[in-house]
Amino acid sequence: MTGKTYYCDKRHMLKAIAEKQGGYFSAGQASACGYHRAVYPYHQKRGHWHRCERGIYRLSTLPMDSRAGDFYLWLLWSNDRQGKTQAVISHESALWYWGLSPTPPASVHLTVPENFTRTNPALTLHQEELADFDLENRGGLRVTKPLKTLRDMRSKLEKEGKFAATVSHAIEHGIISEQQAAVRDWPVREAKSRFRQGEPMRRDYSRASQRGFTLVELLVVIAILSILAGLLLPMLRQAVNSARNMQCLHHEKQIWLAYEIYASDYKGMWPTYAYTITLPQVYWANAIAPILGIEKVPDSHRRTILCCPVDAEDHFRYHQGITWSYGFNANLTNKTGNTWIRPSKLKNTSRLCMLADADKSISISSYTDGMVYHLDYRHDIFKINILYCDGHAASLAGPLESVVTNKEFWEN
Protein backbone atom coordinates (compact mmCIF):
# COMPACT_ATOMS: atom_id res chain seq x y z
CA MET A 1 0.00 0.00 0.00
CA THR A 2 1.48 3.37 -1.05
CA GLY A 3 1.57 6.38 1.24
CA LYS A 4 -1.01 8.21 -0.88
CA THR A 5 -3.41 5.25 -0.83
CA TYR A 6 -2.99 4.88 2.94
CA TYR A 7 -3.71 8.58 3.44
CA CYS A 8 -6.89 8.33 1.33
CA ASP A 9 -8.05 5.33 3.34
CA LYS A 10 -7.49 7.20 6.62
CA ARG A 11 -9.35 10.25 5.37
CA HIS A 12 -12.33 8.22 4.13
CA MET A 13 -12.54 6.25 7.37
CA LEU A 14 -12.51 9.43 9.47
CA LYS A 15 -15.07 11.10 7.22
CA ALA A 16 -17.40 8.09 7.53
CA ILE A 17 -17.19 8.29 11.33
CA ALA A 18 -17.72 12.06 11.40
CA GLU A 19 -20.74 11.90 9.07
CA LYS A 20 -22.52 9.68 11.61
CA GLN A 21 -21.73 12.14 14.44
CA GLY A 22 -22.80 15.47 12.95
CA GLY A 23 -19.29 16.15 11.63
CA TYR A 24 -17.57 15.64 15.01
CA PHE A 25 -15.01 13.04 16.02
CA SER A 26 -12.78 12.37 19.00
CA ALA A 27 -8.99 12.17 19.15
CA GLY A 28 -9.31 8.47 19.94
CA GLN A 29 -11.35 7.89 16.80
CA ALA A 30 -8.80 9.78 14.70
CA SER A 31 -6.01 7.64 16.17
CA ALA A 32 -7.99 4.48 15.40
CA CYS A 33 -8.16 5.62 11.76
CA GLY A 34 -4.38 5.91 11.63
CA TYR A 35 -3.76 9.61 12.40
CA HIS A 36 -0.81 10.22 14.74
CA ARG A 37 -1.35 12.87 17.40
CA ALA A 38 1.67 14.77 16.10
CA VAL A 39 -0.24 15.69 12.91
CA TYR A 40 -3.29 17.15 14.70
CA PRO A 41 -1.85 20.73 14.81
CA TYR A 42 -1.08 20.53 11.08
CA HIS A 43 -4.69 19.70 10.18
CA GLN A 44 -5.95 22.47 12.46
CA LYS A 45 -3.57 25.00 10.89
CA ARG A 46 -4.63 24.02 7.36
CA GLY A 47 -8.30 24.34 8.31
CA HIS A 48 -9.12 20.67 7.79
CA TRP A 49 -10.15 20.23 11.43
CA HIS A 50 -11.66 22.61 13.99
CA ARG A 51 -10.84 21.96 17.64
CA CYS A 52 -14.13 22.29 19.58
CA GLU A 53 -13.25 20.89 23.00
CA ARG A 54 -10.35 19.05 24.50
CA GLY A 55 -9.89 15.90 22.44
CA ILE A 56 -12.87 16.69 20.16
CA TYR A 57 -12.65 18.01 16.60
CA ARG A 58 -14.93 18.72 13.66
CA LEU A 59 -14.38 18.24 9.92
CA SER A 60 -14.71 21.62 8.22
CA THR A 61 -16.03 20.05 5.00
CA LEU A 62 -19.19 18.62 6.58
CA PRO A 63 -22.33 20.77 7.05
CA MET A 64 -23.85 21.41 10.46
CA ASP A 65 -27.04 19.55 11.39
CA SER A 66 -29.54 22.36 12.04
CA ARG A 67 -31.70 20.32 14.43
CA ALA A 68 -29.04 18.32 16.24
CA GLY A 69 -26.84 21.40 16.65
CA ASP A 70 -23.90 20.67 18.89
CA PHE A 71 -25.56 17.65 20.53
CA TYR A 72 -23.05 15.26 18.92
CA LEU A 73 -20.22 17.37 20.31
CA TRP A 74 -21.37 17.06 23.92
CA LEU A 75 -22.18 13.38 23.61
CA LEU A 76 -18.56 12.81 22.48
CA TRP A 77 -17.44 15.01 25.38
CA SER A 78 -19.14 12.57 27.77
CA ASN A 79 -17.27 9.51 26.47
CA ASP A 80 -15.38 7.46 29.04
CA ARG A 81 -11.84 6.09 28.59
CA GLN A 82 -13.19 3.16 26.56
CA GLY A 83 -14.99 5.53 24.18
CA LYS A 84 -18.49 4.68 25.49
CA THR A 85 -20.98 7.57 25.52
CA GLN A 86 -22.27 8.35 29.02
CA ALA A 87 -24.70 11.21 28.37
CA VAL A 88 -28.18 11.43 26.83
CA ILE A 89 -29.86 14.54 25.36
CA SER A 90 -32.78 15.29 27.69
CA HIS A 91 -35.10 17.86 29.31
CA GLU A 92 -35.25 21.26 27.47
CA SER A 93 -32.86 20.09 24.74
CA ALA A 94 -34.87 16.93 24.04
CA LEU A 95 -38.11 18.97 24.15
CA TRP A 96 -36.76 21.26 21.41
CA TYR A 97 -35.36 18.31 19.43
CA TRP A 98 -38.78 16.62 19.30
CA GLY A 99 -40.35 19.87 18.12
CA LEU A 100 -42.26 20.49 21.36
CA SER A 101 -40.57 23.82 22.04
CA PRO A 102 -40.35 26.74 19.57
CA THR A 103 -36.82 27.81 20.56
CA PRO A 104 -33.67 25.95 21.58
CA PRO A 105 -32.59 26.26 25.24
CA ALA A 106 -29.74 28.56 26.32
CA SER A 107 -27.60 25.58 27.35
CA VAL A 108 -27.51 21.94 26.31
CA HIS A 109 -29.24 19.64 28.81
CA LEU A 110 -27.75 16.19 29.34
CA THR A 111 -28.68 13.32 31.64
CA VAL A 112 -25.58 11.51 32.91
CA PRO A 113 -24.99 8.59 35.31
CA GLU A 114 -24.84 9.33 39.03
CA ASN A 115 -21.09 8.66 39.19
CA PHE A 116 -20.34 11.16 36.38
CA THR A 117 -17.99 13.90 37.69
CA ARG A 118 -17.11 16.10 34.72
CA THR A 119 -18.67 19.56 34.32
CA ASN A 120 -18.81 22.29 31.66
CA PRO A 121 -20.35 25.79 31.84
CA ALA A 122 -22.06 25.29 28.50
CA LEU A 123 -24.03 22.34 29.86
CA THR A 124 -26.81 21.67 32.33
CA LEU A 125 -26.34 18.17 33.72
CA HIS A 126 -29.02 15.98 35.28
CA GLN A 127 -27.86 12.86 37.11
CA GLU A 128 -30.08 9.81 36.71
CA GLU A 129 -29.69 6.16 35.78
CA LEU A 130 -31.86 5.82 32.68
CA ALA A 131 -33.45 2.58 31.49
CA ASP A 132 -33.01 1.47 27.88
CA PHE A 133 -36.74 1.81 27.12
CA ASP A 134 -36.52 5.55 27.93
CA LEU A 135 -33.80 6.14 25.30
CA GLU A 136 -33.82 6.35 21.52
CA ASN A 137 -30.89 6.27 19.12
CA ARG A 138 -31.61 8.44 16.08
CA GLY A 139 -28.71 8.33 13.63
CA GLY A 140 -26.16 7.94 16.43
CA LEU A 141 -27.81 10.65 18.59
CA ARG A 142 -28.89 9.41 22.04
CA VAL A 143 -32.01 11.27 23.20
CA THR A 144 -34.75 10.57 25.72
CA LYS A 145 -38.02 9.45 24.15
CA PRO A 146 -40.91 11.94 23.94
CA LEU A 147 -42.83 10.38 26.85
CA LYS A 148 -39.75 10.46 29.09
CA THR A 149 -39.02 14.04 27.99
CA LEU A 150 -42.56 15.16 28.88
CA ARG A 151 -42.32 13.43 32.26
CA ASP A 152 -39.04 15.25 32.98
CA MET A 153 -40.44 18.62 31.90
CA ARG A 154 -43.95 18.34 33.36
CA SER A 155 -43.26 20.30 36.54
CA LYS A 156 -41.63 23.22 34.72
CA LEU A 157 -44.21 23.32 31.93
CA GLU A 158 -47.09 23.29 34.43
CA LYS A 159 -45.60 26.30 36.24
CA GLU A 160 -45.52 28.11 32.88
CA GLY A 161 -49.04 26.92 32.00
CA LYS A 162 -47.82 25.13 28.86
CA PHE A 163 -48.02 21.45 29.74
CA ALA A 164 -51.50 20.75 28.35
CA ALA A 165 -50.73 22.64 25.13
CA THR A 166 -47.44 20.75 24.71
CA VAL A 167 -49.17 17.39 25.15
CA SER A 168 -51.88 18.40 22.65
CA HIS A 169 -49.24 19.44 20.13
CA ALA A 170 -47.43 16.10 20.56
CA ILE A 171 -50.67 14.20 19.94
CA GLU A 172 -51.62 16.36 16.96
CA HIS A 173 -48.32 15.68 15.18
CA GLY A 174 -48.12 11.98 16.01
CA ILE A 175 -45.22 12.28 18.46
CA ILE A 176 -47.25 10.49 21.15
CA SER A 177 -50.69 8.85 21.00
CA GLU A 178 -53.89 9.86 22.79
CA GLN A 179 -53.85 6.50 24.60
CA GLN A 180 -50.39 7.22 26.03
CA ALA A 181 -51.57 10.59 27.32
CA ALA A 182 -54.83 9.15 28.71
CA VAL A 183 -53.03 6.37 30.61
CA ARG A 184 -50.96 9.01 32.41
CA ASP A 185 -54.01 11.23 33.00
CA TRP A 186 -52.34 14.19 31.29
CA PRO A 187 -54.53 17.23 30.62
CA VAL A 188 -55.06 18.08 26.95
CA ARG A 189 -56.17 21.36 25.35
CA GLU A 190 -55.74 23.18 22.04
CA ALA A 191 -52.10 23.01 21.00
CA LYS A 192 -51.96 26.31 19.11
CA SER A 193 -52.22 28.35 22.32
CA ARG A 194 -48.70 27.34 23.29
CA PHE A 195 -47.05 29.06 20.34
CA ARG A 196 -47.08 32.71 19.54
CA GLN A 197 -48.80 33.57 16.29
CA GLY A 198 -46.40 33.36 13.38
CA GLU A 199 -43.96 30.91 15.00
CA PRO A 200 -43.44 27.71 12.97
CA MET A 201 -44.60 24.39 14.40
CA ARG A 202 -42.48 21.35 13.58
CA ARG A 203 -44.34 18.81 11.46
CA ASP A 204 -43.82 15.14 12.22
CA TYR A 205 -44.44 12.88 9.27
CA SER A 206 -44.27 9.61 11.20
CA ARG A 207 -48.11 9.40 11.33
CA ALA A 208 -49.96 8.95 8.07
CA SER A 209 -52.59 11.49 7.07
CA GLN A 210 -56.12 10.64 8.16
CA ARG A 211 -57.56 11.87 4.84
CA GLY A 212 -58.08 9.14 2.26
CA PHE A 213 -57.34 9.30 -1.47
CA THR A 214 -59.95 10.70 -3.83
CA LEU A 215 -61.09 8.76 -6.89
CA VAL A 216 -59.26 11.17 -9.21
CA GLU A 217 -56.01 10.70 -7.29
CA LEU A 218 -56.35 6.93 -7.46
CA LEU A 219 -57.01 7.05 -11.20
CA VAL A 220 -53.97 9.25 -11.73
CA VAL A 221 -51.79 6.83 -9.78
CA ILE A 222 -53.16 3.87 -11.75
CA ALA A 223 -52.49 5.69 -15.02
CA ILE A 224 -48.92 6.48 -14.02
CA LEU A 225 -48.30 2.88 -12.98
CA SER A 226 -49.74 1.65 -16.29
CA ILE A 227 -47.43 3.94 -18.25
CA LEU A 228 -44.42 2.79 -16.24
CA ALA A 229 -45.38 -0.84 -16.72
CA GLY A 230 -45.71 -0.29 -20.46
CA LEU A 231 -42.21 1.21 -20.56
CA LEU A 232 -40.50 -1.29 -18.28
CA LEU A 233 -42.07 -4.61 -19.29
CA PRO A 234 -40.54 -4.68 -22.80
CA MET A 235 -37.14 -3.89 -21.33
CA LEU A 236 -37.59 -6.61 -18.72
CA ARG A 237 -38.72 -9.10 -21.38
CA GLN A 238 -35.70 -8.24 -23.51
CA ALA A 239 -33.36 -8.73 -20.53
CA VAL A 240 -34.90 -12.13 -19.76
CA ASN A 241 -34.57 -13.24 -23.39
CA SER A 242 -30.97 -12.08 -23.51
CA ALA A 243 -30.17 -14.02 -20.33
CA ARG A 244 -31.78 -17.19 -21.69
CA ASN A 245 -29.88 -16.80 -24.95
CA MET A 246 -26.58 -16.56 -23.06
CA GLN A 247 -27.52 -19.62 -21.01
CA CYS A 248 -28.23 -21.57 -24.21
CA LEU A 249 -24.81 -20.63 -25.63
CA HIS A 250 -23.24 -21.75 -22.35
CA HIS A 251 -25.01 -25.14 -22.66
CA GLU A 252 -23.60 -25.62 -26.13
CA LYS A 253 -20.06 -24.87 -24.95
CA GLN A 254 -20.46 -27.41 -22.15
CA ILE A 255 -21.52 -29.99 -24.76
CA TRP A 256 -18.34 -29.32 -26.74
CA LEU A 257 -16.24 -29.85 -23.59
CA ALA A 258 -18.08 -33.15 -23.01
CA TYR A 259 -17.15 -34.20 -26.56
CA GLU A 260 -13.49 -33.40 -25.85
CA ILE A 261 -13.55 -35.48 -22.67
CA TYR A 262 -15.21 -38.31 -24.61
CA ALA A 263 -12.46 -38.13 -27.25
CA SER A 264 -9.75 -38.41 -24.59
CA ASP A 265 -11.27 -41.74 -23.50
CA TYR A 266 -11.95 -43.12 -26.99
CA LYS A 267 -8.68 -42.70 -28.90
CA GLY A 268 -9.38 -39.13 -30.01
CA MET A 269 -12.75 -39.91 -31.60
CA TRP A 270 -16.06 -38.05 -31.30
CA PRO A 271 -19.34 -39.98 -31.31
CA THR A 272 -21.45 -39.47 -34.41
CA TYR A 273 -25.06 -38.28 -34.25
CA ALA A 274 -26.30 -41.90 -34.21
CA TYR A 275 -24.51 -45.25 -33.91
CA THR A 276 -26.73 -47.90 -35.50
CA ILE A 277 -24.46 -50.92 -36.01
CA THR A 278 -25.64 -52.50 -32.77
CA LEU A 279 -29.06 -52.43 -31.17
CA PRO A 280 -30.36 -50.56 -29.36
CA GLN A 281 -28.87 -47.67 -31.30
CA VAL A 282 -27.01 -44.94 -29.39
CA TYR A 283 -27.50 -41.25 -30.14
CA TRP A 284 -24.92 -38.53 -29.51
CA ALA A 285 -26.79 -37.20 -26.43
CA ASN A 286 -26.84 -40.68 -24.82
CA ALA A 287 -23.09 -41.00 -25.40
CA ILE A 288 -22.07 -37.80 -23.56
CA ALA A 289 -24.83 -37.72 -20.90
CA PRO A 290 -22.70 -39.64 -18.30
CA ILE A 291 -19.87 -37.14 -18.78
CA LEU A 292 -22.27 -34.26 -18.00
CA GLY A 293 -23.56 -36.09 -14.91
CA ILE A 294 -27.04 -36.66 -16.40
CA GLU A 295 -28.75 -39.81 -15.17
CA LYS A 296 -31.40 -41.72 -17.08
CA VAL A 297 -34.97 -41.12 -15.88
CA PRO A 298 -38.39 -42.00 -17.37
CA ASP A 299 -39.43 -38.31 -17.49
CA SER A 300 -39.54 -37.19 -21.13
CA HIS A 301 -40.01 -33.52 -20.12
CA ARG A 302 -37.03 -33.20 -17.79
CA ARG A 303 -34.75 -30.22 -18.47
CA THR A 304 -31.00 -30.85 -18.46
CA ILE A 305 -27.92 -29.07 -19.78
CA LEU A 306 -28.74 -30.75 -23.11
CA CYS A 307 -31.94 -28.70 -23.30
CA CYS A 308 -32.22 -25.10 -24.47
CA PRO A 309 -33.82 -22.89 -21.75
CA VAL A 310 -36.11 -21.32 -24.39
CA ASP A 311 -37.30 -24.57 -25.95
CA ALA A 312 -40.77 -25.84 -25.01
CA GLU A 313 -40.91 -29.22 -23.26
CA ASP A 314 -43.10 -30.75 -25.97
CA HIS A 315 -40.25 -30.09 -28.44
CA PHE A 316 -37.73 -32.22 -26.50
CA ARG A 317 -36.25 -35.36 -28.04
CA TYR A 318 -36.35 -38.33 -25.63
CA HIS A 319 -34.42 -41.60 -25.92
CA GLN A 320 -33.27 -44.15 -23.34
CA GLY A 321 -33.96 -41.85 -20.36
CA ILE A 322 -32.25 -38.72 -21.79
CA THR A 323 -33.90 -35.52 -23.11
CA TRP A 324 -32.28 -32.95 -25.42
CA SER A 325 -33.21 -30.12 -27.79
CA TYR A 326 -30.10 -29.75 -29.96
CA GLY A 327 -29.33 -31.48 -33.25
CA PHE A 328 -25.92 -32.76 -34.37
CA ASN A 329 -24.64 -31.86 -37.85
CA ALA A 330 -25.25 -35.06 -39.81
CA ASN A 331 -23.08 -33.84 -42.71
CA LEU A 332 -19.97 -34.47 -40.62
CA THR A 333 -20.45 -38.22 -41.20
CA ASN A 334 -21.74 -40.45 -43.95
CA LYS A 335 -25.46 -40.78 -44.55
CA THR A 336 -25.76 -43.98 -42.48
CA GLY A 337 -24.32 -42.26 -39.45
CA ASN A 338 -22.07 -45.19 -38.54
CA THR A 339 -18.72 -43.44 -38.93
CA TRP A 340 -17.04 -41.96 -35.87
CA ILE A 341 -15.54 -38.49 -36.16
CA ARG A 342 -11.86 -37.73 -35.67
CA PRO A 343 -11.75 -33.99 -34.71
CA SER A 344 -8.07 -33.71 -35.64
CA LYS A 345 -9.06 -34.28 -39.28
CA LEU A 346 -11.65 -31.50 -39.37
CA LYS A 347 -10.85 -28.36 -41.40
CA ASN A 348 -11.96 -24.78 -40.89
CA THR A 349 -13.36 -25.68 -37.46
CA SER A 350 -14.18 -22.07 -36.65
CA ARG A 351 -16.75 -22.05 -39.53
CA LEU A 352 -17.84 -25.69 -39.43
CA CYS A 353 -21.16 -26.29 -37.64
CA MET A 354 -21.15 -29.03 -34.97
CA LEU A 355 -24.68 -28.76 -33.55
CA ALA A 356 -27.49 -26.22 -33.28
CA ASP A 357 -31.02 -25.65 -32.00
CA ALA A 358 -33.22 -28.40 -33.39
CA ASP A 359 -36.88 -29.41 -33.19
CA LYS A 360 -37.41 -33.00 -31.97
CA SER A 361 -34.48 -34.29 -33.97
CA ILE A 362 -31.21 -36.06 -33.35
CA SER A 363 -29.51 -34.25 -36.22
CA ILE A 364 -29.55 -31.27 -38.57
CA SER A 365 -28.41 -31.31 -42.17
CA SER A 366 -28.24 -29.38 -45.45
CA TYR A 367 -28.30 -30.88 -48.88
CA THR A 368 -28.10 -29.66 -52.43
CA ASP A 369 -31.80 -28.87 -52.64
CA GLY A 370 -31.14 -25.73 -50.60
CA MET A 371 -33.14 -26.79 -47.57
CA VAL A 372 -32.02 -26.84 -43.94
CA TYR A 373 -33.61 -29.70 -42.08
CA HIS A 374 -34.83 -29.69 -38.45
CA LEU A 375 -33.41 -26.30 -37.35
CA ASP A 376 -35.51 -24.46 -34.75
CA TYR A 377 -35.37 -20.65 -34.84
CA ARG A 378 -36.48 -20.01 -31.25
CA HIS A 379 -34.37 -17.10 -29.98
CA ASP A 380 -35.72 -13.55 -30.30
CA ILE A 381 -36.97 -13.02 -33.87
CA PHE A 382 -35.84 -15.81 -36.21
CA LYS A 383 -32.50 -16.41 -34.48
CA ILE A 384 -30.65 -19.67 -33.87
CA ASN A 385 -27.69 -20.64 -31.65
CA ILE A 386 -24.92 -22.66 -33.27
CA LEU A 387 -21.95 -24.53 -31.79
CA TYR A 388 -18.89 -24.69 -34.03
CA CYS A 389 -16.31 -27.47 -34.12
CA ASP A 390 -13.61 -25.30 -32.52
CA GLY A 391 -15.77 -24.95 -29.36
CA HIS A 392 -17.15 -21.43 -29.74
CA ALA A 393 -20.89 -20.75 -29.87
CA ALA A 394 -22.70 -17.86 -31.52
CA SER A 395 -26.16 -16.64 -32.49
CA LEU A 396 -27.13 -16.27 -36.14
CA ALA A 397 -30.23 -14.62 -37.55
CA GLY A 398 -32.17 -16.62 -40.11
CA PRO A 399 -33.09 -17.68 -42.63
CA LEU A 400 -29.66 -19.05 -43.44
CA GLU A 401 -29.72 -18.80 -47.25
CA SER A 402 -26.15 -17.51 -47.17
CA VAL A 403 -24.84 -20.64 -45.46
CA VAL A 404 -27.15 -23.35 -46.75
CA THR A 405 -25.08 -23.82 -49.90
CA ASN A 406 -21.77 -23.10 -48.16
CA LYS A 407 -19.99 -26.41 -47.73
CA GLU A 408 -17.51 -24.88 -45.25
CA PHE A 409 -20.44 -24.44 -42.85
CA TRP A 410 -21.92 -27.94 -43.20
CA GLU A 411 -19.29 -30.35 -44.57
CA ASN A 412 -15.65 -31.03 -43.72
Protein described:
- By secondary structure, this protein is of the alpha+beta class.
- The protein has three domains: 1-64, no CATH class; 81-206, no CATH class; 247-410, no CATH class.
- The chain is 33% helix and 17% strand.
- The chain contains twelve helices and 18 strands.
- It has helices spanning 3-19, 27-32, 40-45, 71-77, 91-97, 146-160, 163-172, 178-183, 215-265, 284-288, 401-404, 407-410, and strands spanning 24-26, 49-53, 56-59, 88-89, 108-112, 123-127, 135-138, 141-144, 274-275, 282-283, 317-319, 322-324, 326-329, 353-357, 363-366, 372-373, 383-388, 393-397.
- It has a six-stranded mixed β-sheet, covered by helices on one side. A three-stranded antiparallel β-sheet has the order 1-3-2, with helices on both faces.
- β7 (135-138) and β8 (141-144) form a beta hairpin.
- α5 (91-97) crosses α6.
- The chain is elongated and about 105 Å long.
- The two termini are 56 Å apart.
**Strand order across the biggest sheet?**
16-15-13-14-17-18
Helix content: 25-40%
Please state the structural category.
alpha+beta
**Biggest sheet, in brief?**
6 strands, mixed
User: How many distinct folded domains?
Assistant: 3
What's the order of the H and E elements?
Answer: HEHHEEHEHEEEEHHHHEEHEEEEEEEEHH
Low-confidence stretches: 191-201, 203-209
Rg over CA atoms, rounded to whole Å, is: 38 Å
End-to-end distance, in Å?
56 Å
Number of DSSP strand runs = 18
Number of alpha- plus pi-helical segments: 12
Question: Mean pLDDT across all residues, rounded?
Answer: 82
Bin the strand percentage: 15-25%
Shape: elongated
